[in-house]
Design a protein that fits this description.
The chain is mainly alpha-helical. Helix content is about 80%, strand content about 0%.
Length: about 140
């Protein structure tokens, strides 16, 4: 079924993204901060909207900017052909493109971002705990 394939792809991307980042963090504090950031972003999207949340993450730097880039890496191509081409070298090109989407596409992108973040939160929490147990 197509939906199962999409969900598996989303989960695989979320796992690889989180794994690649969290295993490079040098200490428990950094991993806890990353997990905390992943937990707060879905609420921010629901309260403020995807565009405002992306703008906030983009502007903040640090772990927030990491989450921004991780979302961009998925949403740039998924769902397919929703996001028009944009200049990746231009500062804020991604967020500018998202906030200018027609409302239907904007809602689709919001739903996709929340679905990806759901997987990322799960994997980040589990990987953080696993790395802490290993010492």
């Amino acid at each position: 079924m197509a939906i199962d394939r999409i969900e598996r792809g989303r989960a695989a991307h979320a796992f690889q993204t989180v794994y690649d980042y969290i295993t490079r963090l040098p200490d428990e504090k950094g991993r806890k901060e990353y997990v905390a950031h992943l937990k707060k972003v879905p609420s921010m999207i629901q309260v403020n909207g995807l565009g405002q949340t992306l703008a906030f993450l983009y502007a903040k730097g640090g772990q927030d900017h990491v989450v921004y880039r991780q979302l961009e890496s998925w949403l740039r191509h998924n769902p397919a052909e929703i996001l028009p081409p944009y200049d990746e070298g231009q500062n804020g090109g991604f967020v500018k493109t998202v906030v200018n989407l027609p409302s239907r596409e904007y809602r689709i992108m919001t739903k996709e971002a929340l679905a990806l973040l759901n997987w990322m939160r799960r994997f980040a929490g589990g990987l953080k705990d696993d790395l802490e147990q290993r010492g």
